[in-house]
Amino acid sequence: MANYLDELSVLVIEDNQGDYVLIEDYLLEKFEHIKIFHCIDFASTAEFIQNNKGKLSLILLDFILPDKEGMALVNEILSFDLKIPVIMLTGYTDLGMAKNSLQVGISDYLIKDEINPTILHKTILFALNRNSFINQIEKEKNNYENLFNFSPQPTWLIDGQTLKILHANIAAQKKYGISLNNFLNMLFTALHPKEEEEWIKEKLILKQETVQEKHFTHYLFNQQEIKVNLYFKEININSKNDIIIQSNDISETLNHINTIEIQNSKLKNIAWTQSHVVRAPLARILGIINLIEEKVISDEELPFFLTQLKVSSNELDETIKSIVEQAKQLKL
Amino acid sequence: MNTKFFIIDDDSIYRMMAELIIKKVDANLLIEHCENGEVAIEKLSAIKNTNDKIIILLDINMPMLDGWNFLEDIENGIFFELNKPLIFIVSSSADESDLIKSQQYSNVKGFLQKPLKSQNIIDLLPIE
């Protein structure tokens, strides 16, 4: 609050000179560093505001000016959109209207006959404080909108009940090739193929937020299919439950996995060949040697088995060549 | 009671070598050559009621009815009248998955790697 005391500049719009002097006194009494500006009608006020935008901290406004009064005056002042508090100064007779003006954006009102330095001081500080909170919330709303819009991840805001799309960020519009206007006429489920519609509807309405275990299919504008993971979270806006959804295109990842699986099966095939095809002639060669060692083969049979030894050796050679060939073709 | 070997393998040279080995161990042992599982099933069907001890040396990788299909047929009780044949898987494979897979079949009594040696035959003969 200290900073308000440092550099407060107040515009008092008051045509009654007596009232103005009184207020000026109170202000000077309570605020050490204050600049007070004074306008006596709407015309001069409008001109002053045009020339001093951004310099004012607060406006004190009499309800009835010679050239404009009542709600018309309030609306004109508010339409300058200064984002600073406007406090009404009013008599008992205009109390009803003062209350109404609170609804259109006036920060507070003070009854002239009841004003004293303390009340004025407190009212101004409260109004400034409240205004800074409101501005902060406005800024944050803006920040969140930027976060939403500039996220590189396609993101939607949808109605939690009807699943109607309420907003789609720039990434969603680019990725899906669908304009914001077209999105706004769609249900979120329309991005999915028919057979997935019930499934995604159930997930979203039952708020099963962990939908990552399985991926979904989404259609782009040109009916091109992509595979996506969806992440969503319920959010509360103006006491209405909406859902914010992000999609993550995993088509390429799935392709990679597929490629790896194909390679794996090729490698398995090579391993199987190693195990079976190479071993077959090798086992025969070892078997023949074994027969010779165990002296099972007679002299008459020997030439036959020697021929077999040669046949098996050639077979082994061919097999090894073909494995080398297979490994070469495997693009790793 | 005779002991009869069924050598089920598509490789005729291997069958010939196996016969030589078996005969060396005991010349009285009987031997049947089967080039695939189908032939083996036929020959086994023909001796459904035999009292002989049947030892099957089964190669797993064969064309036609391969070793695994043959095991399925035996397991499914096609030869319920026959004394339980003792089956030994013979493979050129050094693949452990074959060994593990073969242990799922109750008729399989052992797993041998090619080439067969006379010691293999001596070892399996006492198995009941």
Helix content of chain B: 25-40%
The number of E-state strands of chain A comes to 10
Strand content of chain B: 15-25%
Succession of helices and strands of chain A: HEHEHEHEHEHEEHHHEEEHH
Helix content of chain A: 40-55%
How many helices of chain A in DSSP terms?
Answer: 11
| SS class of chain A | alpha/beta
The CATH architecture of chain B can be named as 3-Layer(aba) Sandwich
What is the CATH class of the largest domain in chain A?
Alpha Beta
Contiguous helical run count of chain B: 5
Secondary structure: number of strands of chain B: 5
N→C terminal distance of chain A: 67 Å
Instruction: From the alpha carbons, calculate the radius of gyration of chain B and give it in angstroms.
Output: 13 Å
Mean pLDDT of chain A: 88
Q: Order of helices and strands of chain B, N to C? A: EHEHEHEHEH
Main beta-sheet strand count, sense and barrel state of chain A: 5 strands, parallel
Strand content of chain A: 15-25%
Question: What's the short version?
Answer:
The complex is a heterodimer of chains A (332) and B (128). By secondary structure, chain A is α/β, with parallel strands linked by helices.
Describe the overall structure:
The complex is a heterodimer of chains A (332) and B (128). In chain A, 54% of the residues lie in helices and 19% in strands. Chain A has 332 residues and is an alpha/beta fold. Chain A has three domains: 2-147, 3-Layer(aba) Sandwich (Rossmann fold), CATH 3.40.50.2300; 152-249, Beta-Lactamase; 253-331. A five-stranded parallel beta sheet of chain A has the order 2-1-3-4-5, sandwiched between helices. In chain A, strands 7-6-10-9-8 form a five-stranded antiparallel beta sheet. In chain A, strand 6 (155-159) and strand 7 (165-168) form a beta hairpin. In chain A, helix 2 (17-30) crosses helix 6 (117-150) and helix 10 runs antiparallel to helix 11 (302-329). Chain A is rod-shaped and about 140 Å long. The two termini of chain A are 67 Å apart. With 128 residues, chain B is of the alpha/beta class. Chain B has a single domain, classed as 3-Layer(aba) Sandwich (Rossmann fold), CATH 3.40.50. Chain B contains five helices and five strands, in the order E-H-E-H-E-H-E-H-E-H. Chain B has helices at 12-25, 37-46, 67-75, 96-102, 118-124; strands at residues 3-8, 30-34, 53-59, 86-91, 108-113. Chain B is globular, with a radius of gyration of 13 Å. Chain B starts with a strand and ends with a helix.
